[in-house]
Amino acid sequence: MTDTEQAPVHALLTDGTTIRIRRSNPADRAGVLHLYEAMSDENLRLRFFALSRACARQAAERVAAAPRPGYRALVAEHDGRPIGLAEYETDPHGSTADVALAVADDWHHRGVATLLLEHLADAARTAGVTAFTADALAENLDVLRVFHDLGLRVTRRYDGPEVHCVVELTEDETYLSAVDTRGRLADVVSLRPLLRPASVVVIGAGRRPGSVGRAVLRNIVTGSFTGRVFAVHPAASTIAGVHAYRSVTSLPQVPDLAVIAVPAAAVPQECGKTGVGALLVVTAGFDAAGAAALMDVCRRHGMRLAGPNCLGLANTEEGVRLDATFAARHPGAGTAGVAVQSGGIGIALLDGLARLGVGVSSFVSLGDKYDVSGNDLLQWWEADGRTGLAMLHLESFGNPRAFSRTARRVARRMPVLTVDAGRSEAGRRAAASHTAAAATPTMTRQALFTQARVTATRTIGELLDAAALLHSQPLPAGTKTAVVTNAGGAGVLAADACAEAGLAVPALPADSVNALLALLPPGAAATNPVDATATVGEDQLRACVEHLARDAAVDAVLVALVPTAVAAAIGEDLVRALTDVPEPLPRPVVAVLPAQSARVELLDTCAEGTLPAYCDAQDAARALAHAATRARWLATPTGDVAELPDVDSRRARQVVAGFLEDNPEGGWLDPRTASSLLGCYGLPQLPWAWARDEDEAVAAARQLAGSGGRVVMKAYWPGLLHKTEEHALHLDLQGPDRIRAAHRDLVNRFGDRLTGVVVQPLAERGIELFAGVVQDEVFGPLVVFGLGGTATEVLADHAGRLAPLTDRGVRDLLASPRCAPLLRGWAGAPAVDLDGLQQLLHRLSRMACDLPQLAEADLNPVLAGPHGITALDVRVRLLPRRPHDPYLRRLR
Q1: pLDDT band for position 432 (50/70/90)?
Q2: I need a labelling partner for 427 at 20 to 30 A (CA). Which of 510, 553, 569, 853 fits?
Q3: How much of the chain is in helix, strand and coil states, percent to nearest 5?
Q4: Which residues fall within 8 angstroms of residue 464, CB to CB, at 6 or more apart?
Q5: Buried b (16+ CB within 10 A) or exposed e, 282-318
């Protein structure tokens, strides 16, 4: 059952209007009939191919009838009034369905039909429908354009005045991109009353200084807001020089934005009825019922909401200049977009950016994030024409896969940085051998940030370090870093810091060394690090740095300078050597000044730019590493999801449905069912046989390995997870006597728990790996890969990526664990079948995306060798879960 079938959802039209979409019910008869009866004659004729009020009445009866198999109808409504309808009815085979649309005359060209079709297609896919069919008059250009612009593949066949359309419902990148574009445009329009208001009212600004509301009102006034400002107070006539009114309804005009700094539950309702466009709720303390009531008001009246429990928001745009925060200082104008959940972190970031001289384009404190999220802000910054650097602090994710898709697109245009908040020591210690335990919260978030191309830092300081470099310097083409210093010890520490951050400090080629030695004082060393000696002068240092910044053997230059008592090398002179470069350099240059009091500063240069200067080489090196990672991301295509034509998704869904019908609460699959499910996706498994007693075990061994072959026997009972820990397996069994003895041992030790044994031929030698899937309730399916066998519990050498995996994502996943060098051959050992490993991960990813009920799948160990990949042991757990399309347009 899809979300729309389960409960009504709200979504945005192209003009930012909020509508509600829900499944029809018998109570809709009158409303749908009125929808048809209110249509113009032309609209009605195009809908029914004739001017027929009788057809309209029949259609209303059909929509309002009791639910029946193969029929779905979705109603779009605004303010309780049906404004649109989309319905389908399947053919006798159930694979295609005839679709029909109707939209009220006064709601045309606002995206109602397209939005309804997106939701109806989602419901149809879940029901197994692969295509919509529709008949329309050739002159009905509006509906034909709706089908064409949907982003799905459409074929047309003309038959006289009619057109027969077939719309294939398969989601592909073209469709998702079209949905992205529609969603982005609607989202940005809906945010204008919040972030670019022409008028603001503050509700809760007290008479006396000290209240949050009064502080917000003061900042709006002193920040030179370009629009009109009002205050609401039950008794005062003016507050902080602003005219006050008794209620929102008594204001001389309807404001775009209302700032609410009082706990009164009736205030949002009053704002909604008055027509306010957006709410900024700084008030805290909403319980579950209060939160639900607040969101109901916002959705019903189409108001976007920032907060509650937040610091406020600001937009420094010249035509707006809105500071609706209660921060101590106004944010300076600039190009950094900032969104935070924590007000304290927001203040820290604003202060840090102010110290760097990097102003903000807009700032939003998301607070409890009931509505407006980081995803919304990324789309706003992408479109505002001012933002060049996005900075996020997110403690939670409402729709991580949609966030990932948006962030990946935005990161192509500007750096997107975040603090990886909520890292868990307990999560890092988790090293159990099943996927749900191996997939720690840290791994899941890191997978999200990696795939979203988000630069994730560990602290606010590191975030500002990276922002300073990305704001001021070009990106390095790689990791090769030249270290220049006037003190050998400082150069050694800087080189160590670079290596620890993942940067390379290679020896410079001979021609570069000779050129540098010709520029530097006698006694200098130029192999890398470049020791310019304490006697280096300003001009010599400048020439050295300029040469390295243009040298093809170098990707970045790190200059570590310490003040000395040598007259020619006074610290300020040497720093001036870096800032007096007359034109921008093609490669990034960073300074490390241990005597500097600030962690990072941006020094003005003669080339009308800035140079980042750090007090610690580790901070500088990490910032360079983040820049190098971003450069690598930008140079690497995201890749494509692999086509797997031999996958039998329909059969897999039948296997899942059959198991859950017998086990409504879910559980671990028995070996037969698990093998059948994996077989639907072509996942390689070692041959096996099921045996209930000694005789069957002997027969199975003979069948699998011949009369003299060696086999493995594994005990099975529902819920058995760790066979090695339970000593529930016997290895290297040969001959009937040993097989019988092994079976008797398992029976004697496990008794009635034992429901049977699995017999397999003894596998060849190879590297034991681990591959699996876990469905995270918030993040969706995560594919985990790493070292397997018994070592998986000790070393916890795992990495993860969110599904669906692209070909690039699979290669990154294979390269991420520490065991990755073993896969390509190590110490003379042959490389494993990497193509087979890639196929394994692609197929796991496809299975996870197809089956939301797949709570967990473990393939451990997966034996990898030069001639193939085989899963030796498989465990699969299913739970009753409904499909959820993360890309379907809907508000939270």
Answers
A1: very low
A2: 853
A3: 40, 25, 35
A4: 349, 352, 353, 356, 599, 600
A5: bbeebeeeeeeebbebbbbbbbbbbbbbbbbbbbbbe
Q: How far is residue 558's CA from residue 483's CA, in Å, rounded to a whole number?
A: 5
Please state the φ and ψ torsions of residue 486, each to the nearest 5 degrees: -105, 10
DSSP, collapsed to helix, strand or coil, labels residue 868 as: strand
Q: What is the pLDDT of residues 657-696, one digit of tens each?
A: 999 999 999 999 999 999 999 999 999 999 999 999 999 9
352 Rama sector, left if φ>0, alpha if ψ -120 to 50, beta otherwise: alpha
- Residue 508 carries which DSSP code? P
To the nearest whole percent, how much of the chain has pLDDT over 90? 75
CA distances from 176 to 369, 402, 405, 406, 887 (A): 25, 11, 10, 11, 7
Confidence band for 396, pLDDT divided at 50, 70 and 90: confident
What does the block give as tokens for 809? 């994502």
pLDDT value, residue 708: 76
**Side-chain half-sphere CA neighbours of 292 within 13 A:** 3
State the sign of the Cα–Cα–Cα–Cα dihedral 490, 496, 502, 503: positive
**Residue at 785: amino acid letter:** F
- Dist. CA 236–CA 243, nearest whole Å: 9
DSSP symbols for 199-213: EEEEE---SSTT-HH
CB 501 within 8 A of CB 618: yes
* Residue 500 predicted with pLDDT over 90: yes
Say what percent of the chain tops pLDDT 70: 95
The tally of CA atoms less than 13 A away on the side-chain side of residue 621 is: 23
> DSSP 3-state assignment of 624?
helix
Question: What mean pLDDT is predicted for residues 174-192?
Answer: 96
Q: Which of 1-15, 131-145, 831-845 ranks highest by mean pLDDT?
A: 831-845
- pLDDT of residue 809 exceeding 60, the answer is yes
Predicted TM-score (pTM) of this structure: 0.90
SS3 164: strand
Please tell me the predicted confidence (pLDDT) of residue 709.
Answer: 85
Q: Are 330 and 360 a contacting pair, CB within 8 Å?
A: no
Cα angle for residues 673, 675, 795 (degrees, 5° grid): 115
Whether residue 429 has pLDDT greater than 50:
no
Q: In the structure encoding, which two tokens stand for residue 103, read together?
A: 């939209």
CB 223 within 8 A of CB 51: no
Dist. CA 420–CA 285, nearest whole Å: 26
Q: Residue 819 corresponds to which tokens in the numbers above?
A: 């065991």
Q: Which of 764, 791, 784, 779 is nearest to 840 (CA)?
A: 784
| Tokens encoding 442 | 């840290």
Omega before residue 509 within 30° of 0, cis = no
CA gap 58, 418 in Å, rounded: 56
Q: How many whole angstroms separate alpha carbon 500 and alpha carbon 493? A: 11
pLDDT at residue 5 above 70?
no
Contact by Cβ (8 Å): 526, 508 = yes
- What's the pLDDT score for residue 792? 66
CA distance linking residue 226 with residue 232, whole number of Å: 19
Helix (H), strand (E) at residue 249: none
Helix axes 112-126, 141-149, angle to 10 degrees: 50
What does the block give as tokens for 34?
């009125």
Q: Are 876 and 860 in contact (CB under 8 A)?
A: no
pLDDT tens by residue, 850-873: 999 999 999 999 999 998 999 999
Strand 18-23: give its sheet, edge to edge.
9-12, 18-23, 71-78, 81-90, 96-103, 131-137, 162-168, 154-159
Angle at 499 between CA 497 and CA 502, to 5 degrees: 110
CA-closest candidate to residue 74, choices 17, 30, 112, 33: 112
> Contact, 302 vs 13, CB < 8 A?
no
The Cα 317–Cα 332 span in angstroms is: 10
**Maximum Cα interatomic distance, the chain, rounded to a whole number of Å:** 101
Q: Determine how many CB atoms are found less than 10 A away from the CB of residue 779.
A: 24
